[in-house]
Amino acid sequence: MALIVQKYGGTSVGNPERIKNVARKVAKFQAAGNQVVVVVSAMSGETNRLIALAKEVAGAPDPRELDVVVSTGEQVTIGLLCMALQDIGVKAKSYTGGQVRILTDSAHTKARILNIDEAPIKKDLDEGNVVVVAGFQGVDEHGAITTLGRGGSDTTGVALAAALKADECQIYTDVDGVYTTDPRVVPEARKLDTITFEEMLELASLGSKVLQIRSVEFAGKYKVKLRVLSSFQEEGEGTLITVEEEQNMEQPVISGIAFNRDEAKLTVLGVPDKPGIAYQILGPVADANIEVDMIIQNVSKDGTTDFSFTVARGELDKAVKVLEAVKEHIGARTIVTDRTMAKVSIVGVGMRSHAGVASQMFRTLAEEGINIQMISTSEIKISVAIEEKYLELAVRVLHKAFGLDVAA
Ligand code: ASP
Ligand code: MG
Asked: Is the per-residue pLDDT at 317 higher than 90?
């Protein structure tokens, strides 16, 4: 008998018919001899609705009270799913985060899980129940309701799987797994059978929304067997997130391509080339809470240099204001901006053991006449900043060049 934690996202429980569909799926797993713990999100759109409601009442809602409001979405779905299960003859019992006791710190709207009391859940399972737990929420040491950040139900699922030492944590969503890239841009994109935790973390931080980043970190740390699957398909193995050592030798060099259209570049021209300049430019930017992504400093010529960095497009105007304010003090000549940048990243643990991955990427882009403006790398990732109008072309040619079009 296996113990499985299944998490169903907002679209999977988006209306009564879909909730009944989830109930049938869960019942099937239990009938096959498994113990099943289910974590659910709020019905799709509900969390957004609740946040908007709070903002209509107060300009800056108190975080403690905001958590009281937004956590209710999940409370509705746990009750409804239990009713649907009972309606088809399955014993089921619901718990809010506070009832399980999923203990978190007190960082409202982005709390971290500290401890889970798994004993009551185990007892219910042993008595033949399906246990349904509200995702996204917990309770702090003072008994205040907390939430775990947007997409946090994934983390609830993984944390419960770790606490219960579950055999597998299955994340059911509206896609049937993790893809080599976005199929809307590259129709040849393929579903991956496996991907490593590290690759998944890179993809998540590059903007893939399949899993909340924190849930991937958690699963890696506690070695939870994590799988992403579609809640709308009867069959399918989804994508299994694995640890690197378990990968077979034939693993491709590159596993996936991520991209982001939403970048902008700032260049500070003619800054004196002396110690402290990077700090004087980026310090005020950080103080303004603007996240900086790629950074380049040119070689100096006649004692001055150019300094470029990228920010999210929506932050460009704010960043320019910050720089205009410090420009004179730094002794910079001028600031130029480019609002229409995009970032393309190739990700793969195979890069560690293969030389020439970067040059292959650069050659592929050069052959299409695509100019690379900035480059940044990690051990398993190479990102380039290019003009946005070339983004889709870049993703398509790279997908082909690295053999992602054909099954491994
Ligand atoms: N309902 C929450 C959200 O929309 C949590 C989740 O769905 O994972 O972010
Ligand atoms: Mg989600």
From this structure: yes
Q: Note the pLDDT tens digit of each residue in 303-313.
A: 899 999 999 99
DSSP H helix total and E strand total for the chain: 13, 18
Of 153, 214, 215, the residue with max ligand 1 atoms within 8 A of its CB, to mutate for a pocket test, comes to 153
Dist CA 162 CA 270 (whole Å): 53
Q: What is the mean pLDDT of residues 150-179?
A: 95
- Residue 37 Cα to ligand 1 midpoint, Å, equals 18
Q: How many CA within 13 A on the CB side of residue 275?
A: 0
User: What local confidence, expressed as pLDDT, does residue 339 receive?
Assistant: 95
Which one, of 379, 326, 280, 10, lies nearest residue 171 by Cα? 10
Nearest to 256 by CA among 193, 330, 333, 299: 193
| Amino acid present at 330 | I
Predicted confidence band of residue 233 (pLDDT cuts 50, 70, 90): confident
Question: Exposed, middle or buried, 353 (CB in 10 Å: 0-12/13-18/19+)?
Answer: exposed
Rounded to the nearest angstrom, the gap between the alpha carbon of residue 2 and the centroid of all alpha carbons in its chain is 28
**Are the beta carbons of 215 and 154 closer than 8 angstroms?**
yes
> Does 135 contact ligand 1 (Cβ within 6 A)?
yes
pLDDT at res. 401: 96
Q: Is the CB of 14 under 6 A from ligand 1?
A: no
User: Is 42 near ligand 1, meaning CB less than 6 Å away?
Assistant: yes
Closest atom, ligand 1, to C-alpha of 42: 1
Taking the C-alpha atoms of residue 131 and residue 92, their distance in angstroms, rounded to an integer, is 6
Q: Ligand 1 pocket, 136 CB below 6 A?
A: yes
